[in-house]
């Protein structure tokens, strides 16, 4: 299972991760001071964030458990079906097995829907929590660097002929070019992983 991270856009609006950093250094707060901008490759942060990898592993394990339990339930249904087919439809035993078959089939359907929805809810809630952790890290790094605004950077490798840039991706990109000195990505990655390591100790 792969975790997909997307920035949602509305019609005609460019998607950005835009974070206003307050508490800039006092010398930059004077009248007429030029705003300072930074960029963060959110996709790269999520790929290198240790907590994201842990979440992916946890969800993959749960999905495997869901599949295993589902197979066991299906096997039980098949077992009852075979036992029913060995009886004559006019015999009470056949009706008893049919009722059991119906019960197990309904339980499987309800259990399956519940588990799928629960897994989706867990993934949604955890992704939201991790995203907020990243935003806090971006804010901290931006303040330390004296940035006023941080934009979402969608990096394109110009030297990779295999990389295809879709029309949707072209129009959604908030930053066409940025100098390396304003890229906060590596600092944000270090920040989130440092915070994660401290919490796990």
Tell me what the structure shows:
The protein is mainly alpha-helical. It contains five helices and three strands; from the N terminus they run E-E-H-H-H-E-H-H. It has helices at residues 42-48, 50-85, 92-145, 167-172, 185-200; strands at residues 19-20, 37-40, 149-152. A three-stranded mixed β-sheet has the order 1-3-2. Helix 3 packs across helix 5. The radius of gyration is 26 Å and the shape is elongated.
CATH superfamily: Skp domain
| Relative helix content | 55-70%
- Tell me how many strands there are: 3
Query: Number of DSSP helices?
Result: 5
The percentage of residues in β strands lies in under 5%
Topology record:
Layout: E1 19-20, E2 37-40, H1 42-48, H2 50-85, H3 92-145, E3 149-152, H4 167-172, H5 185-200
Parallel strand pairs: 2-3
Antiparallel strand pairs: 1-3
Helix pairs in contact: 1-5, 2-3, 3-5
Key words describing this protein structure:
about 200 residues; mainly alpha; Protein Binding, DinI Protein, Chain A; three-stranded mixed sheet; 5 helices; 3 strands; elongated; disordered N terminus
What's the short version?
The chain is mainly α and 201 residues long. The protein has one domain: Protein Binding, DinI Protein, Chain A (2-Layer Sandwich). It is built from 5 helices and 3 strands.
